[in-house]
Design goal:
FAD/NAD(P)-binding domain; 7-stranded mixed beta sheet; alpha/beta; 2 domains; 7 helices; binds NADP nicotinamide-adenine-dinucleotide phosphate; 5-stranded parallel beta sheet; 319 residues
């Protein structure tokens, strides 16, 4: 294609939201182009087994599931560019999207660039990812039945994760770096009232400890006041210190919250710029699940199709 062609729909992002938006757009004959990123697939490429995506009754490996979603979008004619978008111009339609190599123009843009779970930044955390270190309690709690686990963080996610984990784990230790919590008082109260939960404040994880077989065996904690260290046994470490949405290309123009998550209209994926929709984790600081991302990708595609059809109709009746 040449730079002068205007696409109906460009989707930026190759995760569950992006591929679902592409699937629906392709089946509506909008011939979508997905700029899926150099490392397409999103957060699920770093996940081992996914047991909570409907349809996979036996579970599925994260990368396999992403290949399946991509193949389904491809089957109906989606085109893919395996490159990162590096610049967008949303000041007028058609919108402009640039990769390092090409410039594309599109009537409608669906942003599905996702978010990344914040990491502690420890080499041992990276080594033991998926081997006891997790960033999603809802996804992985069931693997820790009867075990002792650590949750890191002092926000609502940490409290919610800890409370959820008590359904499976024998004991949950919340480790928070300050004495004050960011979590809502009601969430903190619920955690405090739970007999299986213990809170440690003024401490950080200094190291995630692992066995020779490469499984988490515990953590070494360090006091933020005295620098004293001590070890705690645990089969799992749930890091719940927030998410960073991938929105730096858009935040100058699109409304976003303090953390950078794009703001969409209620019951909609529409942003403050007509013709720009946002789907998946990039606009969802709350649920952050593959299935909710896919659902909002579907919404974005349906809304894109409606907008394009209404504009087409308006053009036809005006002439
Ligand atoms: P958050 O509110 O940003 O909290 C992150 C927590 O992690 C903070 O306590 C922070 O400590 C800590 N932290 C950050 N970086 C750290 C590091 N490198 N090492 C150790 N600790 C670190 O994130 P969140 O809990 O994911 O919540 C995000 C949003 O979703 C919030 O608006 C929250 O209210 C909402 N949410 C709501 C619900 C609910 O209502 N049911 C559930 C989940 C999330 P400091 O406090 O010291 O900065």
């Amino acid at each position: 294609m040449t730079a002068s062609d205007v696409r109906n729909v460009i989707v930026i992002g190759g995760g569950p939201a992006g591929y679902t938006a592409a699937l629906y757009s392709a089946r509506a004959l909008l011939e979508p182009l997905v700029i899926e990123g150099i490392s397409w697939g999103g957060q699920l490429m770093n996940t081992s087994e996914v047991e909570n995506f409907p349809g996979y009754s036996e579970g599925v490996m994260g990368p396999q599931m992403m290949s399946d979603l991509r193949a389904q979008a491809e089957r109906f004619g989606t085109e893919f560019v395996t490159d990162d978008a590096v610049r967008v111009d949303l000041s007028q339609r058609p919108f402009v999207v640039e990769t390092g190599e090409e410039t594309y123009r599109t009537s409608v843009l669906i942003i599905a660039t996702g978010a990344n779970a914040r990491e502690l930044g420890l080499p041992s955390e990276t080594t033991l990812k998926g081997k006891g270190v997790s960033y999603c309690a809802v996804c992985d709690a069931a693997f820790f039945r009867g075990q002792e686990v650590v949750v890191v963080g002092g926000g609502d996610s940490a409290m919610e994760d800890a409370i959820f984990l008590t359904r499976f784990a024998e004991k949950v230790l919340i480790v928070h770096r300050r004495d004050e919590f960011r979590a809502e008082p009601i969430m903190l109260e619920r955690a405090r009232a739970n007999e299986k939960i213990e809170l440690v404040t003024g401490a950080v994880v200094d190291e995630v400890l692992g066995s020779e077989e490469g499984k988490v065996t515990g953590v070494r904690l360090r006091s933020t006041e005295t620098d004293e260290t001590w070890e705690v046994e645990a089969g799992g470490v749930f890091v719940a210190i927030g998410h960073d949405p991938n929105t730096s290309l858009f935040t100058e123009v699109l409304e976003h919250d303090e953390a950078g998550f794009l703001i969409t209209k209620p019951y909609s994926t529409a942003t403050n710029v007509e013709g720009v929709f946002a789907a998946g984790d990039v606009q969802d600081p709350v649920f952050k699940q593959a299935i909710t991302a896919a659902g909002s990708g579907c919404m974005a595609a349906l809304e894109s199709e409606r907008l394009l059809a209404a504009e087409e109709h308006a053009r036809a009746t005006a002439s």
